[in-house]
Amino acid sequence: MDAAKNEQLTDLWSKFLKKRDAESREQVVLSYLYLVKYIAGRLSIYFKNYYELEDLESAGIPGLISAVDHFNPEKKVKFETYATIRIRGAIYDWIRSLSWVPRSIYTEARKIEEALAQLEQRLGRVPDDFETAEYLNITVAEYHNLLEKVAHVAVISLDDPQHDTKESLDIAAADTGADGVLNEIEAAEAKEALAEAITKLPERDQLVISLYYYEGLTLKEIGKVLEISESRVSQLHSRSLLRLRKLL
């Protein structure tokens, strides 16, 4: 963001925080609509067979509005970080409210979680796809298809309150309604736990998580970096999230 736009945003925030009126609120919200489009676009990778991009964007707007209303600029958290979690949460809440995911998909996701956990305990290391498929009594191809099938479940599930992502843990500290010290201590402890869990992933899985969540690359772009197909990246991403759920 250039200096002029940054100064304009600062002025908008100053006006809104002083007046808390509908007009200045709307101006702030409009200035961050690009976040909704960006987040909805990334999530559409997993939900493109079920929802239109425009529907995901519409679902995310209430999250942005909520972020503007509750953000506390005195906390040391960027608004973009805080708003991202609110927007993503609003989209997930909308998807959950439709209850379109068959119970069997959640069952399959839990089976994979359990298989990964049991095999790691037995082998003393992270199991490869062949070992996991054998444990599940299916072929490797069937296992890969299963990972893609449960991808959207893995993405939503890791954002449940009991499975905070590293990025989302700043939300308590930035919220004007948060109980400051206690929430910040809990967030710090959760961040530490997640960071430790990520180090237990295979090196390639760690790289996928890093490139997707911290560098902002798409699955297709990650595939080019790792010289593997977008489909394979999706499988690695799903497997990583399911394993993180179990570790947390």
Secondary-structure topology with pairs:
Blueprint: H1 3-19, H2 22-31, H3 33-47, H4 53-70, H5 79-98, H6 103-123, H7 129-136, H8 140-149, H9 151-157, H10 171-174, H11 180-199, H12 203-214, H13 219-226, H14 230-247
Helix pairs in contact: 1-2, 3-4, 3-5, 4-5, 6-7, 6-14, 7-8, 8-14, 9-14, 12-14, 13-14
Describe this entry's structure for a reader:
By secondary structure, this protein is mainly α. It has a domain at 101-248: Butyryl-CoA Dehydrogenase, subunit A, domain 3 (Up-down Bundle). The chain has 14 helices and no strands. α6 (103-123) crosses α14.
Helix content: over 70%
Low-confidence sequence ranges: 160-174, 176-186
Strand content: under 5%
CATH fold title of the domain at 101-248: Butyryl-CoA Dehydrogenase, subunit A, domain 3
CATH hierarchy: architecture of the domain at 101-248: Up-down Bundle
End-to-end separation in angstroms reads 36 Å
